[in-house]
Amino acid sequence: GGDEFVALTTGPDTAEEVHELAGRILNALATPIRLDGRELSVRGSIGIVEGPSGERSAAEVLRSADI
């Protein structure tokens, strides 16, 4: 199974800024963690949805992001 989280921005953000944020999150997740002498790795995937605030409900936005 996997854990899910959401990163919300208050915008207005450009598509480039949003993709940069997604890249920083994936890079952080890709950094191995050492625990009790073992190295653990985590992988992630990101869904991105854009749109003006107030246009859709939070549930609709999450469905669009495929979370």
What does this structure look like?
- The structure is a single chain.
- This protein is of the alpha+beta class.
- It has helices spanning 15-30, 58-64, and strands spanning 33-35, 38-40.
- It has one domain.
- The chain contains two helices and two strands.
- The chain has a two-stranded antiparallel sheet with strand order 1-2.
- The two termini are 13 Å apart.
- The relative contact order is 0.16.
- The model has no long low-confidence stretch (mean pLDDT 81).
Structure keywords:
single chain, 67 residues, alpha+beta, two-stranded antiparallel ribbon, 2 helices
Strand order of the largest sheet: 1-2
Helix/sheet category: alpha+beta
| Average pLDDT for all residues | 81
Query: What's the helix count?
Result: 2
Tally of strands: 2
The largest sheet, given as strand count, sense and whether it forms a barrel, is: 2 strands, antiparallel
Helix content: 25-40%
Based on CA atoms alone, the radius of gyration comes out at: 15 Å
> What fraction of the residues are assigned to beta strands by DSSP?
5-15%
Uncertain runs are none
In total, the number of domains comes to: 1
Order of helices and strands: HEEH
N-to-C span: 13 Å
Backbone shape: elongated
